[in-house]
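Dear all,

This email documents one entry for the complex benchmark we are building for the journal club exercise. For each entry we list the sequence lines for every component of the assembly. Then comes the predicted three-dimensional structure of the complex as a token string, followed by one or two observations. Please use this as the template for your own entries, and keep the labels exactly as they appear.
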Amino acid sequence: MSPLVKIRSERDRMSAVERRVGDFILENAQLLRDYSSQQLANALGISQSSVVKFTQKLGYKGYPDLKYSVGEAIARADNGDAPEAAPAAGGPGESPAENLWRRKSEAEEATRLINPPKAIRAVARAIDQAGRDGKVFIIGLGEDDIYARNFALRLSLLGILTVHDFDTARMTANASAAGAGDVLLVFSEHGNHPALCKISRYFRERRGKLISVTRHTPNPLRTLADLALVVSAHDELPYIQPLLYQSALQHLLDGVFVLLCEGHDSRGATLLANLERIQLMLEP
Amino acid sequence: MSPLVKIRSERDRMSAVERRVGDFILENAQLLRDYSSQQLANALGISQSSVVKFTQKLGYKGYPDLKYSVGEAIARADNGDAPEAAPAAGGPGESPAENLWRRKSEAEEATRLINPPKAIRAVARAIDQAGRDGKVFIIGLGEDDIYARNFALRLSLLGILTVHDFDTARMTANASAAGAGDVLLVFSEHGNHPALCKISRYFRERRGKLISVTRHTPNPLRTLADLALVVSAHDELPYIQPLLYQSALQHLLDGVFVLLCEGHDSRGATLLANLERIQLMLEP
DNA sequence: AGTACAAAGAATAAATTATTGACGCTGCCT
DNA sequence: AGGCAGCGTCAATAATTTATTCTTTGTACT
């Protein structure tokens, strides 16, 4: 039980000196942090031993024990978010860094909301499957290439064969090698690049599984896809929005990645081995 | 600032004994309540004075001060209401997604802690300057290439001329074209790739400004650099740690990027124009 | 090799905390 | 009224805990 509540409840049964101690703590709980039992006694003009006895009567082992509990109580009272609650929605005192962080969190949460765990698991399963009996194709253009490249690297570290392209010509060529059991991951923020759509359609004709990663808008690519991951990220500032998009997308992909890792021990082992090998190569 | 986060953020820089103390506290924070500094020392088989020094290095007045802060942190963590129902951080009731999100936040916060705003501003200024009267060279190998590439793209969108390489040969060649007023951004998680160090040294000889982006460890690259950005991210799971690293690093770079954008209206205009042009190109 | 420096521990000083015993007060019983 | 039991307070002091100093050890850098 909170020491503050305890003090209040016992207050009536206390002696005069004890009551003074109790009242002081109730009113100056936050000061207690820097008070020794002696200082507290001085502040009240009483003896140090009275302070200690007070704490013991309340059931604590001694003064430091009570002090610790009061600290907990205070921390619990201002429910942790004091630093966050104050500069809440775009307050003026908010630093740019904190603001950015908050916006990112919002985007990530929004994105998490529109991608049910079921969908994410389905994507992970599909990729896992393709990693066993097939290939994983990945494509993204422009900025999307960055995300595609990133994810492709992660997958190869897991021992999943990935074919990563960043132009439509090559991917068109590669796609002709695709068949059932393969997966194509298309990264396209707006989901309406004609060439990508064309490739996607072609890929589906060859009975491959299509996974799209786009904004949460109605768009042709997403419509084509067997499985669709969608991202939500908005900001009025043109230089902020891409950051949010990336963050939310990254978080989404990380979720898939973790599922892949946790699915099978063998994957984890492969990853570890690969990481070590790379480490060695980079630090001779 | 939560002592637990602080410990995590400093972990890289700690000596072996200090790290043991830190890890013990991170793992047994709730036990600390009943431990004196001597008992803690015994539990770890080290001297009591080492424990005290540990607390002081972290910026606390002494052991009791740290202990009090840890108490607060724990109290804040289990949000006051459900004392036992919701077990502390990392409990089994927590979904993987939420857990990952929390770990990321911690890494980002720790990273923010160890990079003072002043340092970030200095980096932004240096890049901005180079964007006007010079060139910005960027290099990263392996996974670091992803981050380097990402940032390079962002810079070019801002109208800053960037030379991005992902192998040492090319960069070596390019570096010979460097001079005063130029900036080299080196991405290297562990900061001890010999070739990168060599290039960096060479670049500095040519009077260019060197900016390193590494883990928060003492490492050669960071030592060489005029300006150093550092990242803190840890997890016992080998497949989680890279995600945290990336997240924290990304957040750091985003901070720089935002500063660059906000510094001058002209940059914002360039960005806008570029985004539009790209948009058109991708969606004819 | 030699020096400089940092880190850890042992010893010890300082501080804080807990206990003891003395003193005084109040209330109550004879 | 006198005396005594019980409680509360405090000063003194014992015990514990914490902080500092100093020495040793190991390590990195000439």
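Observations: Chain A is about 60% helix and 10% strand. The first helix of chain A runs from residue 3 to 10.
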